[in-house]
Design goal:
This is Saposin B-type domain-containing protein. Keywords: Signal. This protein is mainly alpha-helical. The protein has one domain. It has 6 helices and no strands. The longest helix is centred in the first third of the chain and has 24 residues.
Length: 110
């Protein structure tokens, strides 16, 4: 009886070890990471530049800022911090005013 338990336990350990090796060999993570791929973030950077430039253009139009504030107020209703969100949206003009010089500097760099 004890011998059967020992044999079953040993078989279980061997099967587990073999399965672990199989899983490690079949791992789908990239094996060879090219240095160029690891250091290239141009896609994300270009996307960021595009979004910042679009935002910088949009804040020049008061109608678009008003539309943005209206949309944000609607979204505030969906958050658990509705009152704080509304205060933030009401202060959006102040934040845009403070951000504008940095957006202009950013656009001049590129």
């Amino acid at each position: 009886m004890v011998a059967k338990i020992v044999v079953i336990l040993f078989a279980l350990i061997v099967i587990t070890a073999a399965y672990k090796e199989f899983i490690l060999k079949e791992n789908k993570t990239p094996k060879d990471i090219l240095l160029l791929q690891a250091t290239s973030f141009n896609g994300t950077c270009n996307e960021c530049k595009m979004l910042i430039s679009r935002f910088a253009e949009a804040i020049k139009d008061p109608r678009k800022v008003t539309e943005l504030k209206d949309l944000l107020r609607i979204l505030c209703h969906e958050t658990p911090y509705e009152d704080e969100c509304r205060v933030l949206v009401n202060q959006l003009d102040h934040f845009i005013e403070k951000l504008e010089p940095y957006l202009v500097q950013f656009l001049l760099l590129f």
